[in-house]
Description:
The structure holds two protein chains of two kinds.
Chain A lengths: L9 H4 L1 H11 L3 E3 H8 L3 H13 L3 E8 L2 E8 L1 H19 L2
Chain B lengths: L5 H15 L8 H23 L6 H30 L2 E2 L4 H24 L1 H4 L2 H21 L3 H19 L6 H23 L9
Amino acid sequence: MKNLALExxxxxxxxxxxxxxxxxxxxxxLDFTFLRxxxxxxxxxxxxxxxxxxxxxxxxxxxxxxxxxxKTWFRIxxxxxxxxxxxxxxxxxxLVQP
Amino acid sequence: MEDLKPxxxxxxxxxxxxxxxxxxxxxxxxxTLMWGCVLTLGYVVCAWLGLEHKVAAIPWVxxxxxxxxxxxxxxxxxxxxxxxxxxxxxxxxxxxDLLGCWVSIAIVGCLWTAxxxxxxxxxxxxxxxxxxxxxxxxxxxxxxxxxxxxxWFWAAGIxxxxxxxxxxxxxxxxxxxxxxxGGTLILAGLLGRRNARRNLHRQPxxx
Lengths: 98, 207
C-alpha cells in the first residue's frame, strides 16, 4: 500500500507552520505581534517558522508603519494557498484510506 | 511522520481558524450609524420643506447632504476604523462582494430615480422614489445579513414591514418607508456596535 504520509510537504506539516498558514489564509495580511499573541508561539520560534515559510515561497513579508509604529506584515502567496489545499487533500485521503 | 494524527491536525486547524479569522461582525458600525443619521436628517429636512411649500429646494437636500456631509464623514470614519484594525495587527481583505452589491444598488436606484424624474412621474407621485429606494434597501440589507453580520436581518425585517404597512395603510403613510431607511441604518449601526464589542476579546491558542 502507498504510504501517503511520506508524500506530505515538510515545509507545511509542522503545527506552528500549519497554524501560520491557516491564520493567513482568511486575512489579507497579519502582523508579527498578532500571530505571536494568537498562535501562542514564542518570538524566536515564530521568526524561524516564518523564515522557513518565506524561503519556501509560501508567504511574503513587508514592513510598513501604522500610526507611526513599525509593523511587519505577512501575507500568504498563491503557492502557500496551493500547498495548504494540497495538504488538506492529502490528510483527507489519509483519513479515508482503510 | 509516524505519529501523524490527521484528525487532531484538522481539529487544531479549526481552533486556529476560529481564533484568527475575522468574526462575523460589522466593525464599520460607526459608518453605518453616520449614514443613518445623515439620511434621517435629510428626510426630516425634505419633509419640513414640503410642509413649508418650498418644493424647489427638496431635490438639492439629499445630494448636498450626501456629497458635503456624508462622504467626507464616510472617508474619516472608514480611515479611523481601518487604522484601528491595522493597529491590532490585522489587515482585512477587501469585501468585493459587499462593495459590488452596494454599488449595484446605488446604480439601479439612481437609474430608477432618473427615470422617474425624466418621465415626470416624480412630480405627480413623489412617494414612488421612496418605495424604489426602500425596496432596494431591503435587498441590500438581506445581502448584508447573509454576507456580513446577523443584525442586518432586523434592519431588513423592519424595512420590509414599513413598506407593507405603508401599502396597507394608504397614502397618509407613504412617508414611512423613506423615514425607515435612515432609522434602520441607525438600528443596524447600534446593533453592530453591540456585536462588535462582544467579539473584542479572543483567547490565544497554543500551536
